[in-house]
Amino acid sequence: MSEKIVTFIGTGSMNGAIASGLLASGFHAQNVRATVHSAKSAQELPEKLGEEAEGVEVFSSEVSADANQKAVQGAAAVLLGVKPYDILDVLESLKDALDEETVVISVAAGVSLDSLQKAAGKKQPVIRCMPNTPARVGKGALAYSAGSTVTAEQRKLAEEILGAVGMVFQVEEEQMDAVTALSGSGPAYAFLLAECMKKAGMELGIDEELAKNLASTTVAGAGALLEKDPNPEDLRKAVTSPGGTTEQAIKAFQEGGIEELTLRAMTANAQKSAEMSQEYNK
Ligand SMILES: NC(=O)C1=CN([C@@H]2O[C@H](COP(=O)(O)OP(=O)(O)OC[C@H]3O[C@@H](n4cnc5c(N)ncnc54)[C@H](OP(=O)(O)O)[C@@H]3O)[C@@H](O)[C@H]2O)C=CC1
Ligand SMILES: O=C(O)[C@@H]1CCC=N1
């Protein structure tokens, strides 16, 4: 895998996180190409990708109209990370530049395999993936569905690339809206909880810097425990002493409707993903 070329088309928050994670896992920078739109983003990208990025070839579609086409030439895999409303046009524009065997991996929310396949051409191997930004530190959750033309070898390559930045799960495409609501957007929910804990800590009299550090370290530490033992209920119970302090907070969360609220939030997310599928698919 390390000798193969991997190209990132649209290297912002998400594709940038995957590229950084891939480079940090030991993938050679000389085999990575990355495109962005603006000249400014192109200039800033190497620093954003981290210290292992030296040698990554960066292209800007603002500077050069055929930047994306050049960047995919000879690539074994191309990860498409532009916005959902742009992805089909960008993919169509790459059609003639892609090798027949190049595996195209879309990370866009709400864009179906069917639409991707039509934009890429019916024989092109195409994968729809829903990653998340912890990929940047090798701790992503990445779910994917493969199109019908993807061979076992191509799936293995895709799993190697995605597996370098986190845990990979193959899912039915019908599950993608729900997966987007759970793991795709999920890091934002954990960050929101950390934000709320910080603010509440300040209300309780802790100064801002300390509240920020305690909230962030606590959520990160809880994540590290979950990584060792993926049973949130057990871990919660281990903190909650009968008749103690945590019990009062958990009761307040539950009486406030945290379960229903979470379901409502994730349902709204999945519905938006389904609506995008109607809006952007061709
Ligand atoms: N953010 C997340 O947590 C997740 C995002 N996704 C999906 O990832 C995709 C990207 O989202 P996100 O990373 O947040 O968005 P960003 O805006 O951070 O990144 C988009 C990138 O695409 C570049 N770009 C735009 N047009 C072109 C073009 N024509 N050619 C080359 N590059 C181009 C932008 O360059 P420039 O900076 O110059 O504008 C930017 O680097 C979306 O489809 C989203 O659904 C999926 C899972 C999680
Ligand atoms: O908010 C979004 O639309 C993207 C998809 C999942 C996470 N971020």
- Please report the first level of CATH classification, the CATH class of the largest domain: Alpha Beta
Strand count, sense and barrel status of the largest sheet are: 8 strands, mixed
- Spans where pLDDT lies below 50 across 5 or more residues: none
Strand order of the largest sheet: 3-2-1-4-5-6-7-8
β-strand number: 8
Overall structural domain count: 2
Question: Structural class of the helices, strands and pairings?
Answer: alpha/beta
Q: For the terminal residues, how far apart are their CA atoms?
A: 33 Å
Helix content: 40-55%
Overall mean confidence score, pLDDT: 97
Report the CATH superfamily of the largest domain: NAD(P)-binding Rossmann-like Domain
- Count of individual helical segments: 12
Oligomeric status of the shown chains?
A: single chain
Q: Taking Cα atoms only, what radius of gyration do you get, to the nearest Å?
A: 21 Å
Could you spell the SSE succession in H and E letters? Answer: EHEHEHEHEHEEHEHHHHHH
Protein name: Pyrroline-5-carboxylate reductase
GO biological process, one term: L-proline biosynthetic process
GO molecular function: pyrroline-5-carboxylate reductase activity
Binding site for NADP(+): 9-14
Reconstruct the topology from this structure:
Layout: E1 6-9, H1 13-24, E2 32-36, H2 39-49, E3 57-60, H3 67-72, E4 77-80, H4 84-94, E5 103-106, H5 113-120, E6 126-130, E7 140-146, H6 152-163, E8 166-170, H7 176-184, H8 186-203, H9 208-228, H10 232-239, H11 245-255, H12 258-280
Parallel strand pairs: 1-2, 1-4, 2-3, 4-5, 5-6, 7-8
Antiparallel strand pairs: 6-7
Protein name: Pyrroline-5-carboxylate reductase
GO cellular component, one term: cytoplasm
Pathway: Amino-acid biosynthesis; L-proline biosynthesis; L-proline from L-glutamate 5-semialdehyde: step 1/1
